[in-house]
Amino acid sequence: MEEEGTSRVWRVLLVLTRAKLGKLQWGDLAALPGQMCGPRRAEIALVEPEELARETREFDVAVTKMTDQLVACVERSGTAEAEHAARQVEAVEQYLASHPGIVQVDPVPVQRLLSRRDVLCAKLDELERATRSAAAVVVRGARYRVNSCEGLRFPVMCKRVGACGVPESHRMLVAFGPRAVARFAAQCAPGSGFVCQQYVNHGA
What we know:
The chain is of the alpha/beta class. The protein has seven helices and eight strands, in the order E-H-H-E-E-H-H-E-H-H-E-E-E-H-E.
């Protein structure tokens, strides 16, 4: 039991690849422990997925960011990049499974759901079954048929299935008719698919 007024050090495991780290400001992250007030302190250890099997330190909290790898496993299927990504995800999942006492922030199963728009759409569709028309449909492959978006009203927002990990994931299109959707489909890799979602203007 922690006594009142005693100092407590929270040991935080941060699992990031070099690519993901390049998008962040490590200096800002490293400075966080020094900004904590009160008796509790934190120590952040940055570890790459491949190094987890050799990690001997004990941690209280694990923050793992594997979204890029989860997308690569599907969208780069059959490539060396996908195999490497799968090994990284497996290394993280094995480490966490063997350390059940670690509190996980943003667990891998949650990232698996949020990193792919088609999976997320399916979950949202389950919650919206009471409505007559689906809020979104998933078009598989690069071939588009006019009736693929049946049940949706134009305009629709077209997005790649993968929500992160590759530059193409951030390219979106507001389509006002089937021909615009067909042009978007032609730019997608065979087998990757894309999401057509009812467009709502949020004023942004």
